C-alpha cells in the first residue's frame, strides 16, 4: 500500500462526534491526515439530527458538568469558537433553562446536594420550594412536588444541524477529508489497528482509528473481537399544539414520567417506554400510543392548560445507550491502544460533542487527558464492570 493511502487517523462515523474529533485534531495539529467515513451523509437516522438539541449543566457527576460548562460557551459563541469561516453563524442558543422536579423529601435532598456540586463547578442551579416554582411559572400545578431544581442560565436548546454543519465545514477547511462510505472492517496486527476497510475505497492504512459510530458502535468493536456495552434504544418524540398553554418562556421541564419544552408555538415532549430495551438499529417505527397512554394525563395534571392538545407531528430517534451506567465511554481501548472510543452517550451526546471531541483529540495527540480529566469515563471501567453512574438521564 502506497504511503499516500495512509492516514494518521480514520474516524468511523461523521455525525457530530466524528466531526468534532476531526475539527479538533486538524486544529491542534495542522497537516494531520484525517479521514472521516460516514455511511449516510443525509444523517436521516443519525442521533445528531433526531436530537431534541438541548444543553444543561444539571448533571449528577462533576465531569459531566465540566463537559457542559465548556460546551455551552462553545455553542453560544459558535463562530468565534470555530476560529475559521464555516458558513454557520449563531446556533440560536435559547437559554430558557431546565427545571427538574422532585416528588419526595429524599428527592429534594438529592436535588440540593447535586445543585451544590453544580454551583461549585460554575453552574447557576438553584433549588426552589414549590411555591417559588409556581411564582416563577404560574401555569404549573405544584401540589405534588417537594422542590424544583432550576438553571437560570447556560441551559436551553440550540440548532443541532448547525453545530454539525459548522464542525464539518471547519474540519474540512483545516484539511480533514470526508467521504460517504460505509466501514466494514478493521485490520488488527500486533495489538493495534493498522487499517480500516471501507465498502467503496477498500482497505486503508492508518496510525489510529476513532469509533464515532453512534448506535452502531458495538458492531465496530466486534470487528476487533471487543465487546461494547452500547445498544440502540428507541425514543418517540411528539410535537404537540396546546392552544390553552402558550408559554414560550417555559424551561425544559423534567417531570416524573416525561420531559417537555416549548418549540415556537408548540411543545416537544417524550417519555421513556416502560418496557425500554434494545431495538433494531433500523427500527424507526413510532410508538404513537405513548402520548395518550402515558404522557397526556401527566401533562394535564402538571398544567391545566394542557386540557386541549393535538399531536401535530412526531419523529423517532435512537439513544446510543450505555447499559452499564448511561455515561459516555471515552478514550483508547486498553486492548487496542490506538482505537479510540467516543460512544454510549445515552441521549446527551450532542451537547457533549464540543468538549468530548477536544478531549479525544488531546488524548490521541498527547497520550493523556488535558483540558478536562475524562478518566472517570474511561473504557477501563467498562472492562472492570465498575459503573460510574449518571442519575440525571433524560
From TrEMBL:
Q: What are the TM regions of this chain, as residue ranges?
A: 7-25
Q: Name one Pfam family in it.
A: DAO
Which parts of the sequence belong to the FAD dependent oxidoreductase domain? 8-362
> What does UniProt give as GO cellular component?
cytoplasm
By its UniProt entry, which SUPFAM superfamilies does this protein fall under? FAD/NAD(P)-binding domain
Q: Highest taxon of the source?
A: Bacteria
> What is the name attached to this protein's record?
Glycine/D-amino acid oxidase-like deaminating enzyme
Q: Which organism is it from?
A: Gemmobacter caeni
Its taxonomic placement starts with: Bacteria, Pseudomonadati, Pseudomonadota, Alphaproteobacteria, Rhodobacterales
Amino acid at each position: 500500500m502506497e504511503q499516500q493511502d495512509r492516514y494518521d487517523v480514520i474516524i468511523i462515523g461523521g455525525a457530530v462526534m466524528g466531526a468534532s474529533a476531526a475539527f479538533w485534531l486538524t486544529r491542534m495539529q495542522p497537516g494531520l491526515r484525517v479521514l472521516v467515513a460516514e455511511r449516510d451523509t443525509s444523517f436521516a437516522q443519525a442521533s445528531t439530527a433526531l436530537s431534541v438539541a438541548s444543553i444543561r449543566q444539571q448533571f449528577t457527576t462533576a465531569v459531566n458538568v465540566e463537559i457542559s460548562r465548556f460546551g455551552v460557551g462553545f455553542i453560544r459563541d459558535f463562530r468565534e469558537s470555530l476560529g475559521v469561516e464555516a458558513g454557520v453563524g449563531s446556533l440560536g442558543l435559547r437559554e430558557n433553562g431546565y427545571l427538574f422536579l422532585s416528588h419526595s423529601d429524599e428527592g429534594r435532598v438529592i436535588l440540593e446536594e447535586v445543585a451544590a456540586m453544580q454551583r461549585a463547578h460554575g453552574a447557576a442551579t438553584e433549588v426552589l420550594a414549590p411555591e417559588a416554582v409556581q411564582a416563577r411559572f404560574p401555569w404549573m400545578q405544584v401540589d405534588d412536588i417537594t422542590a424544583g431544581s432550576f438553571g437560570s442560565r447556560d441551559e436551553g436548546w440550540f440548532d443541532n444541524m448547525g453545530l454539525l454543519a459548522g464542525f464539518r465545514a471547519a474540519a474540512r477547511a483545516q484539511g480533514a477529508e470526508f467521504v460517504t462510505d460505509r466501514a466494514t472492517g478493521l485490520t488488527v496486527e500486533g495489538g493495534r489497528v493498522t487499517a480500516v476497510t471501507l465498502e467503496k475505497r477498500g482497505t486503508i492504512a492508518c496510525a489510529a482509528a476513532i469509533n464515532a459510530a453512534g448506535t452502531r458502535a458495538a458492531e465496530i468493536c466486534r470487528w476487533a473481537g471487543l465487546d461494547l456495552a452500547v445498544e440502540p434504544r428507541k425514543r418517540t418524540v411528539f410535537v404537540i399544539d396546546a392552544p390553552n398553554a402558550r408559554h414560550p418562556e417555559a424551561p425544559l421541564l423534567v417531570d416524573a414520567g416525561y420531559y417537555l419544552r416549548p418549540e415556537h408555538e408548540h411543545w416537544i415532549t417524550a417519555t421513556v417506554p416502560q418496557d425500554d430495551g434494545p431495538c433494531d438499529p433500523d427500527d424507526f417505527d413510532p410508538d404513537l400510543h405513548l402520548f395518550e397512554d402515558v404522557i397526556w394525563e401527566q401533562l394535564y395534571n402538571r398544567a391545566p392548560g394542557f386540557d386541549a392538545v393535538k399531536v401535530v407531528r412526531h419523529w423517532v430517534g435512537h439513544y446510543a445507550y450505555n447499559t452499564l451506567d448511561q455515561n459516555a465511554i471515552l478514550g483508547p481501548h486498553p486492548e487496542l491502544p490506538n482505537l479510540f472510543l467516543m460512544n454510549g452517550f445515552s441521549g446527551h451526546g450532542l451537547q457533549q460533542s464540543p468538549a468530548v471531541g477536544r478531549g479525544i483529540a488531546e488524548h490521541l495527540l498527547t497520550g493523556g487527558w488535558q483540558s478536562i480529566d475524562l478518566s472517570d469515563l474511561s473504557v477501563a471501567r467498562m472492562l472492570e464492570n465498575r459503573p460510574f453512574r449518571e442519575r440525571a438521564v433524560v
